[in-house]
Backbone:
């Protein structure tokens, strides 16, 4: 019998990574999984079907599907359901997008107050599975903003763990009409690495979850390699009129820049975290082949979504430049990617609209300073400006 039989898991965000990865691992580990979401159609479908299919999208596993069973859903607007499930939960995870964490924190705070009031003394871990350094720590800080009583704060400090993690599996939007809205398509590769030093209570037993005492190295390795290359491919691809990541990477010049950028961030990561350069190059090769997977139709607009978040000082584009500078290393390809992100214009993406408006209002140099933290008249700011000019609106590479 599974060590997690009879235990409940609550996962916020029944979207791509929620259904396609974290929910799947939790269900396979024996938890009874409940998804919490704001999207009524997803919750209705989960409570009707209690099951969904995962399609593995690659040549080797073509046609292979897994079924995730015994799942259900609640709306985050239903406070009574949120309180009940958080009182009963043995683990909570999220995959809602980093900007949504402050909203989810309100639900979690409400639930934790109810859990303490109900006299539950068992430990609980809450893991934010988002592409952001320190996402669970951010969630913790947001939850604390909604706790006023000393008893609730003490309860959280003693009983509730917020371990950070690195999460990796490419899960693009997917549709298989005959299977309704819950079916999801994923690549076969997956990696979930959790900070064991921040876990509370008995050791978690979840096949597919790895534990580490050096999480920051793994978070930066993933965010500054896969997400760096992915974002640069999306922004250059968008400029040149490609729709998907594999189409964009089929352009030899784009592939050269994407690989060049991953090698630049890689050299800095090896210095910083002591990764073996040969092993790290194999890690880059594997990522490049994952981007080429023709069975994954991943739109450049999904991968490029929210450009201001991606251009933030510690995120996938600026973070590696700062790390390369720390060691006196080159970062020319990374700068090209940053310039392409600044050229990204998608009227369906509110951050792209905000970025365009900021550049128009303040001028490029000031906008770059505000978004990336590279102040006006610094060499980084100037290099970005000159790459932006060279790129033009059509992506001259
Ligand atoms: N898709 C991937 O390939 C992938 C891989 C690794 C990590 N991630 C990370 O996972 C997170 C989610 O990405 P995704 O691709 O699954 O996005 P998604 O848009 O498919 O899913 C997000 C889900 O969150 C729900 N949501 C929004 N606001 C909410 C709220 N207040 N409460 C509860 N649910 C809410 C949405 O309705 C949606 O179902 C992001 O941080 C992303 O960076 C994604
Ligand atoms: O989710 P984002 O917007 O931070 O980044 C877009 C993609 O790069 C990302 O979702 C990847 O597919 C994922 O990180 C793969 O593990």
Residues:
């Amino acid at each position: 019998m599974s060590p997690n039989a009879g235990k409940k898991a609550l996962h916020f965000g029944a979207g791509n990574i929620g259904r396609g990865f974290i929910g799947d691992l939790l269900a396979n580990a024996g938890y009874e999984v409940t998804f919490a979401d704001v999207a009524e159609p997803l919750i209705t479908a989960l409570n009707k079907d209690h099951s969904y299919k995962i399609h593995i999208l690659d040549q080797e596993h073509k046609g292979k599907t897994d079924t995730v069973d015994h799942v259900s859903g609640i709306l985050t607007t239903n406070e009574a359901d949120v309180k009940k499930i958080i009182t009963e939960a043995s683990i909570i995870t999220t995959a809602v997008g980093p900007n949504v964490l402050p909203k989810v924190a309100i639900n979690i705070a409400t639930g934790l107050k109810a859990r303490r009031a109900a006299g539950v003394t068992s430990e609980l871990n809450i893991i934010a599975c988002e592409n952001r350094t320190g996402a669970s720590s951010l969630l913790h800080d947001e939850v604390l903003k909604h706790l006023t009583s000393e008893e609730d704060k003490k309860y959280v400090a003693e009983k509730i763990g917020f371990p950070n993690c690195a999460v990796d599996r490419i899960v693009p939007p997917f549709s298989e009409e005959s299977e309704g809205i819950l079916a999801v398509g994923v690549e076969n590769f997956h990696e979930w690495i959790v900070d064991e030093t921040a876990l509370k209570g008995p050791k978690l037993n979840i096949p597919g979850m790895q534990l580490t005492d050096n999480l920051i190295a793994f978070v930066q390795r993933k965010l500054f390699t896969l997400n760096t290359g992915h974002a640069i491919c999306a922004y250059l691809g968008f400029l040149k009129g490609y729709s998907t990541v594999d189409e964009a990477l089929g352009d030899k010049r784009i592939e050269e820049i994407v690989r060049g950028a991953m090698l630049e961030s890689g050299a800095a990561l090896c210095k910083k975290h002591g990764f073996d350069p040969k092993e790290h190059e194999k890690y880059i090769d594997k990522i490049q082949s994952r981007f080429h997977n023709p069975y994954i139709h991943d739109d450049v607009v999904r991968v490029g979504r929210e450009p201001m978040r991606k251009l933030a000082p510690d995120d996938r584009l600026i973070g590696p430049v700062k790390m390369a500078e720390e060691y006196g290393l080159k970062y020319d390809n990374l700068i090209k990617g940053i310039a392409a992100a600044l050229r990204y214009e998608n009227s369906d993406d509110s951050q792209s609209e905000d970025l365009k408006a900021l550049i128009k209002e303040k001028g490029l140099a000031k906008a770059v300073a505000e978004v990336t933290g590279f102040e006006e008249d610094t060499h980084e700011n100037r290099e970005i400006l000159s790459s932006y000019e060279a790129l033009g609106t059509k992506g001259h590479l």
Q: What stands out?
A: The two ends are 57 Å apart (CA to CA). The pocket of D-Mannitol-1-phosphate (ligand 2) is lined by residues 131, 168-170, 226-227, 230, 303, 305-306 (CB under 6 Å). The first strand starts at residue 8 and ends at 12.
